[in-house]
Amino acid sequence: MTIAALETDRLLLRPFTVDDLEELAAVFAVDAVWFFPFRRGLTRDETAAFLARTIERYDTDGVAPWAAVPLDAGVVIGFVGLSVPHFLPEVLPAVEVGWRLHPDWWGQGVATEGARAAVRYGFERLALDRLISIYEPDNVASGRVMDHLGFTFERATLGPRREKVHVRELHRRDWQEASR
Length: 180
Hints:
Blueprint: E1 6-7, E2 11-15, H1 21-28, H2 35-38, H3 44-60, E3 65-70, E4 78-83, E5 96-101, H4 110-125, E6 130-135, H5 140-149, E7 152-158, E8 164-171, H6 172-179
Antiparallel strand pairs: 1-2, 2-3, 3-4, 4-5, 6-8, 7-8
Helix pairs in contact: 1-3, 4-5
């Protein structure tokens, strides 16, 4: 399956390739990037497994996160995009919007900008009726991004490591109304 690339004011969101491993491993090694849920960064092997799984899911799921590349920097700073949250079977079928960026890019609206493009893609190009986003409630910054995007609380549950997570949702009709 061919996965489209998207461009925002500051980001190129494009499908990952195996050539992204080194740049992505450097980002994912930062403890803060994967603090929720692992409380540590990922090893190079864990990043390679993530990358292989992501590339495979472009074909098997039709969606998977895009590499986030600032237009003025040209290096991978993490990911933004859509994915099927296989790790939380109770919410399936569903498509999730998510992001993980290097901390140097936090607090600048980059996650919101990229996620907004992903939401638009999900509703306009994929004709989805609903998107979800999942986070640990202590991850206040991610909750704020979801607030900016219009996501509302759907449920509290436990993630795969028995961590508390909140599931938020956004319906296409609500998104369309807010976009007017």
